[in-house]
User: Which sequence fits this backbone?
């Protein structure tokens, strides 16, 4: 079973983050530039303060029009962020992401240090790779019996 740590080791541990005081316009530009769907919000000490997704920005635009782009990230971010441990299985992570409808989950160690971010796409790819590997092993075993 693939762990979240294995997934991070494969995909990388780059964390794109923004300060809570930045504007939604800055966040939107960052998301576009990095081609990602969410950005981690860190306070000035580097601690996890929240997460802001494309969906959060779209909701702000729907509420206030383009004036929303001047709002601060902290006013629209999700402050109570569900995180996962690197020791969790990707299968369990996918279950949580599906049930809670989270598309991005920060990975933190037991001390709360941010280690990376996993998207639902990362998790699905890891599971598909794991299943393809299992199929290959089973195919090899059946060929040995012939």
Assistant:
């Amino acid at each position: 079973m693939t762990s979240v740590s294995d997934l991070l080791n494969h995909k990388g541990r780059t964390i794109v983050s923004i300060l809570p005081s930045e504007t939604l316009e800055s966040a939107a530009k960052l998301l576009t530039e990095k081609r990602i769907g969410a950005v981690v919000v860190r306070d000035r000490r580097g601690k996890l303060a929240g997460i802001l997704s494309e969906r959060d920005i779209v909701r702000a635009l729907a509420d206030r029009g383009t004036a929303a782009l001047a709002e601060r990230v902290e006013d629209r971010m999700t402050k109570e962020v569900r995180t996962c441990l690197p020791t969790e299985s990707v299968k369990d992570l996918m279950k949580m992401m599906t049930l809670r409808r989270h598309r991005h989950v920060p990975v933190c160690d037991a001390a709360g240090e941010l280690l990376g971010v996993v998207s639902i796409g990362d998790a699905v790819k890891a599971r598909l790779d794991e299943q393809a590997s299992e199929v290959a092993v089973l195919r090899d075993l059946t060929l040995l019996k012939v």
